[in-house]
Amino acid sequence: MDDERGDPTVGELSEGRILRRILERLGESNALVGPGDDAAVIAAADGRVVATVDTLVHGPDFRLAWSSAYDLGYKAAAVNLADIAAMGATPTALLVALAMPDETRLSFVTGIADGLRAACRDLAPGCRVEGGDLTVSDTLTIAVTALGALAGRAPVLRSGAQVGDVVAVAGELGRAARGLRTLFTRFTDAAGAPIAVDERVLESTELTDLAAQLRPSPPVWLGPDAADAGATAMMDVSDGLVLDATRLASASGVTLSLESALLGADPASALSGGEDHALLATFPARRPLPHGFVRVGVVQPRGADAVMVDGRPYEGRGGWDPYLDWDARTG
Ligand SMILES: Nc1ncnc2c1ncn2[C@@H]1O[C@H](COP(=O)(O)OP(=O)(O)OP(=O)(O)O)[C@@H](O)[C@H]1O
Ligand SMILES: Cc1ncc(C[n+]2csc(CCOP(=O)(O)O)c2C)c(N)n1
Ligand SMILES: [Mg+2]
């Protein structure tokens, strides 16, 4: 048994032992029935549950050479918490399905649990991992389901933007995309395979970009604030600002007109980058924007294009599509 360092592989352990080691990292449950029974029981105080799921798969979504176990847990939680926030809701619980190769170390599994817990602590303090599933697979996969509560609010949909509304964003735009570019350009070998990150060779802004890619920090708490401030439509920017704005514009039957001068120092990355999970929302123009949101454009009547940038259609893809952009042979 390859267990000399007290760190066995999951293939050397039983499901029950792995589970116990995960549960002892997660802290107190917040649920009516937490982990340990056939299912969790979560309170739905106002009678409605907001629910979403997002899966991270080794290959298209992350590389073990670049992400630590903690990073993966953190990101798997954060991307789901952002989707709950984007409805105007507060996250209440996560359910985590882990499919792991036999040779995965127990310390890796507990690292994922630590990352999940830390993301909840940092981004959605009332939320806990309340259940999940373990199975074995050649491809490391983390599927997180997040639940949320609206506390009496109407959900903020993608479809409510009104002509004349202000388009606004809360959170980073473009950092995570720059971080990914750094990984692919600086930390791959001659054949294009990912190699370990050497943080000593990076400038401080590059380190910040890398952290944004590996451990995104979306402003989850601003989702309910946006709803309370009268947001007419909202979504998180997961795939790219232009691509996601196109989805919101199409759902609402309007055109979103963005101004690149309002998108910070690197508008090109802001326009096509997505994984910061910023909140993109529209608000009635007559009211002040809620704290944390900045204006990036205006809602116009639907024209030939769903999104305009500086008065022109955007040239290029405008974001990530897993089917178009991922190729198993090239990564
Ligand atoms: N396999 C599926 N079955 C049913 N509905 C799905 C399925 N996949 C996606 N959807 C639904 O389609 C909508 C858009 O999904 P999508 O995954 O693009 O949104 P998202 O979660 O905001 O984005 P991202 O995955 O980039 O974070 C969501 O309402 C989602 O629930
Ligand atoms: C190793 C590696 N390769 C590629 C990417 C790029 N990428 C993966 S998922 C995604 C957006 C959201 O995806 P989804 O819509 O599937 O939730 C993006 C931009 C990455 N982050 N890591
Ligand atoms: Mg989303």
Automatic annotation (TrEMBL):
Chain sites annotated for binding Mg(2+) 1: 54, 133
Binding site residues for Mg(2+) 3: 38, 83, 236
Reactions listed under catalytic activity: thiamine phosphate + ATP = thiamine diphosphate + ADP
Residues reported to bind Mg(2+) 5: 239
Binding-site residues, Mg(2+) 4: 38, 52, 83
Single GO term (MF): thiamine-phosphate kinase activity
Top-rank taxon: Bacteria
Keyword set, alphabetical order: ATP-binding, Kinase, Magnesium, Metal-binding, Nucleotide-binding, Thiamine biosynthesis, Transferase
Pathway: Cofactor biosynthesis; thiamine diphosphate biosynthesis; thiamine diphosphate from thiamine phosphate: step 1/1
E.C. number: 2.7.4.16
A Pfam family that the UniProt record links to this protein: AIRS
Residues binding Mg(2+) 2, per UniProt: 54, 83
Domain PurM-like N-terminal: 36-149
Ligand binding (ATP): 132-133, 158, 238
Family: Belongs to the thiamine-monophosphate kinase family.
Family matches, as HAMAP family: TMP_kinase
More about this protein: Reaction mechanism of ThiL seems to utilize a direct, inline transfer of the gamma-phosphate of ATP to TMP rather than a phosphorylated enzyme intermediate.
Function summary: Catalyzes the ATP-dependent phosphorylation of thiamine-monophosphate (TMP) to form thiamine-pyrophosphate (TPP), the active form of vitamin B1.
Protein name from the UniProt record: Thiamine-monophosphate kinase
Organism: Microbacterium psychrotolerans
